[in-house]
Amino acid sequence: MSGKLRQLAVPAVALAAIAGSAAWFRRYYLRWGATDAEAAGTLPGDDVLPTPDLQVTRAVTIKAPADAVWPWLAQMGQGRGGLYSYDFLENLLGLDIHSADRIHPEWQDIHAGDHFHLAPAASADLEVALVDAGSSLVLRVPPDSPPGPFDFTWAFVLRPQSDGTTRLLVRERYAYSRWWTVWMVEAVEVASFIMSRQMLRGIRRRAEGNA
What we know:
Layout: H1 3-30, H2 36-40, E1 54-62, H3 66-74, H4 87-92, E2 115-116, E3 126-132, E4 136-140, E5 150-160, E6 166-176, H5 181-210
Antiparallel strand pairs: 1-6, 2-3, 3-4, 4-5, 5-6
Helix pairs in contact: 3-5
């Protein structure tokens, strides 16, 4: 190989390594904790947004039965049980989130059509699209919301395992309505990964401790 070819090969190899690392990291944070089958499989709520531009599936194993995990999901939301993630980061944005460390009976009643608060402002609300008590909770952007850059669903699914543990799967699905939305969502998903991973761990810690 001539000196000139060697000079060209070095940056080409470096770029290929960077691209490969970026692709690996993207796959990691979009599918943290989920198996190939879980990431590719159908979950409750998929039919609410049937043709997404991006699907994210994350998961964790909880050493507790599904009925010990469900109450923590049922009471989620701002002004209720919180999101079990980094409250201090969320509150830096003015979201007023305070994650509960016990099950509140008064927050267990949840139905399709209810509002799910992410912040004090009503404009940040999601809508409960589906409730299968003890099994799945699906949230969506309210259909009557002003058009935004994307439509969105957020599903929490419990899958009991034969050994008495439970798999908790969390799926985000996005359908873009602007050509530039892809860049916004890709950037947001890095932060979403950090917060969602802590949320999954927070639910696991609470459910296992309660069980």
